[in-house]
C-alpha cells in the first residue's frame, strides 16, 4: 500500500473487553517496525494504538489533541526510537479508533488510557499529550493519582480553556459569554511552521480513510472546554513539563508563566516559531526539551 507494507500476524475475537483484535507490523521505507493494534474498552468501544514494541526500553505514550492524527507524531517518535518505547493512542472518535456516542467526556478518555496501560502491563510511563491529549492526562492524574505514570508532558494546552477574572490565558477568545457556541466555529489553521511533507501527506491520507466529524464529537469538545485543571498543576502527583508554541494560534504562550506562578516545580518551555503542534512543527526542538526533562527525572 504505497510506501508501507502491512502484514496481519495475529487475529482474535473481541468478545471480552481488553482483548486484542489484531496485530499488524508496519515496515516503513526506513525499515522501522511499528505495531498497529486494537483493543476493546470496558464500555465496548474499539480503540486503536501503535507501539514500537521495544519492551526492554522505558515507555512513552502520546495522545493527540481532539481530531488529531498520530501521523503528526512520527518525526518525534523517530527521534526517541533509540532510547524509548513509544506508544500512540487514538482517542475514541478519532484516528483509527471507533466512532461512538459513548464516553464523550474527558474522564472516560482517562479511563481508556488506564485500560491500555493495564493491558500492556506498563508502569512508570511518561505520558505526552498535545492539546486535549494533555487534558486527558490531567484527568488521569485526578482519578488515579500517580497511577501508572512517572511524569507528564503537556504540548500547548492551557489548564483552563475559558478565560475569566481568575485566568486570562484561555483558548482564543473563549469566555463564559460565548461558551459553548464559539466551539461550533472553524478554529482555523493550528500550525504556524511548515510541517514535513511526508508526515503531512500521511496524516491527510489517514483523514481521508478515517474521516473526523467535529459535529459528532462536539459534546466531548464542550466538556473539555469546561474543565479547569489548575488544581492538578498545584498538586501534581508526578513531575510535569509544559511546552507552549511561541506562535500558537490557540493559546498565549505566556500561560507557561502563569503555570510557574501556580507551581514553581513544574518545568516550562516555549518553542519559538511554532504553532499548536510542537511535535509536528518543531520535532527536533521538542525532542531536545523533552529529552532533557526525561534525563533529569529521578528513578
From TrEMBL:
**Entry-linked Gene3D superfamilies:** alpha/beta hydrolase
Q: Where is the AB hydrolase-1 domain?
A: 58-281
**InterPro entries recorded for this chain?**
AB_hydrolase_1 (IPR000073), AB_hydrolase_fold (IPR029058), AB_hydrolase_sf (IPR050266)
Which Pfam families would you find in this protein's record?
Abhydrolase_1 (PF00561)
- Recorded GO CC terms: membrane
Its domain of life reads: Bacteria
What is the name of this protein? AB hydrolase-1 domain-containing protein
Species the sequence originates in: Lactobacillus crispatus FB077-07
Amino acid at each position: 500500500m504505497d510506501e508501507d507494507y502491512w502484514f496481519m500476524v495475529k487475529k482474535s475475537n473481541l468478545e471480552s473487553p481488553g482483548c486484542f483484535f489484531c496485530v499488524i507490523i508496519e515496515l516503513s521505507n526506513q525499515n522501522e517496525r511499528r505495531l498497529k493494534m486494537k483493543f476493546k474498552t470496558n464500555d465496548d468501544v474499539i480503540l486503536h494504538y501503535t507501539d514500537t514494541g521495544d519492551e526492554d526500553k522505558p515507555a512513552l505514550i502520546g495522545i493527540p489533541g481532539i481530531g488529531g492524527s498520530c501521523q503528526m507524531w512520527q518525526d518525534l517518535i523517530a527521534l526517541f526510537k533509540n532510547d524509548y518505547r513509544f506508544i500512540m493512542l487514538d482517542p475514541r472518535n478519532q484516528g483509527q479508533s471507533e466512532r461512538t456516542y459513548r464516553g464523550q467526556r474527558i474522564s472516560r478518555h482517562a479511563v481508556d488510557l488506564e485500560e491500555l496501560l493495564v493491558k500492556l502491563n506498563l508502569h512508570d510511563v511518561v505520558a505526552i499529550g498535545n492539546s486535549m491529549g494533555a487534558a486527558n492526562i490531567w484527568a488521569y492524574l485526578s482519578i488515579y493519582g500517580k497511577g501508572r505514570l512517572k511524569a507528564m508532558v503537556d504540548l500547548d494546552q492551557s489548564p483552563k480553556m475559558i478565560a475569566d477574572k481568575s485566568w486570562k490565558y484561555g483558548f482564543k477568545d473563549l469566555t463564559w459569554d460565548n461558551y459553548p457556541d464559539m466551539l461550533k466555529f472553524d478554529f482555523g489553521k493550528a500550525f504556524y511552521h511548515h510541517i514535513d511533507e511526508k508526515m503531512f501527506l500521511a496524516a491527510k491520507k489517514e483523514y481521508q480513510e478515517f474521516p473526523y466529524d467535529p459535529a459528532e464529537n462536539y459534546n466531548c469538545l464542550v466538556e473539555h472546554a469546561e474543565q479547569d485543571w489548575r488544581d492538578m498543576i498545584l498538586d501534581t502527583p508526578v513531575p510535569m513539563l509544559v511546552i507552549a508554541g511561541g506562535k500558537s494560534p490557540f493559546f498565549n504562550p505566556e500561560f507557561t508563566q502563569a503555570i510557574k506562578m501556580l507551581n514553581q516545580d513544574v518545568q516550562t518551555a516555549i518553542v519559538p516559531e511554532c504553532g499548536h503542534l510542537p511535535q509536528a512543527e518543531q520535532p527536533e526542538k521538542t525532542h531536545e526539551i523533552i529529552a532533557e526533562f526525561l534525563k533529569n527525572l529521578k528513578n
